[in-house]
Amino acid sequence: MKQRDLWIGILLIALGLLLLVGPTVNFSQYGWPFFVLLPGIALLFIALTTTVNNSALAVPGAIVTVIGLILLVFSLTGHWQGWSYAWALIIAATGVGNYLRGRATNDASLVGSGTRTALYGVVAFVGLGLFFELFVFGARSAFMRWVLPIGMIAAGGVLLYLNSRNRGSAAVAAHSTPPSPPVAVGAQQPTAPDNDERG
């Protein structure tokens, strides 16, 4: 119930911001990506707030949401050549969807594979973005100001998360098996007294 309330709150905030900013935005020019973004958010909402059987919708929901965000950014900036590397974020979105699905179903394998896929996608996005923006497009100022720092923050966050999970699992494994007491070399084990032996 707490997770459901969380996503309801996020949806209400997003809709409130949309209604607040909507009158000042030229939706005929910049608003069309919301027709992609909002269905993606709706799929994520259904996947994370309803039954476990609907958790598979987290993967297409994450993908559609990220595509909508990319379209929104490109429609605002006009930097459509960024698709040459922004497609890597769709791979990252697939990982995020699998991660959310694994969390909803308590599937550790999905959580792990989703985290790795998201990390690979973010790293590919940053690497390809550096190459295309610095050496092909030459738009160094915009890329160095926004895209590169955001990508580095996202990649660093995923790495910190993976590091904390690995240390936590190692600590649990270390405490799960108690150490055996040391045995001195040449020490003899005590034997039971012989019943036939008399004092």
Essential attributes:
single chain, mainly alpha, 8 helices, globular
Low-pLDDT segments, ≥5 res: none
The share of residues in helices is over 70%
Total beta-strand segments: 0
Mean pLDDT, to the nearest integer, reads 76
- Major sheet details: none
Q: Report the order of strands and helices.
A: HHHHHHHH
Strand content: under 5%
* Molecular shape: globular
Q: How far from one another are the termini?
A: 75 Å
Structural class: mainly alpha
Tell me the radius of gyration. Answer: 27 Å
Q: Please work out how many helical segments DSSP would assign.
A: 8
Overview of the molecule:
This protein is mostly helical and 199 residues long. It is built from eight helices and no strands. It has helices at 2-21, 27-31, 34-49, 58-77, 83-86, 88-105, 108-137, 140-176. The model has no long low-confidence stretch (mean pLDDT 76).
What is the secondary structure topology, with strand pairs?
Elements lengths: L1 H20 L5 H5 L2 H16 L8 H20 L5 H4 L1 H18 L2 H30 L2 H37 L23
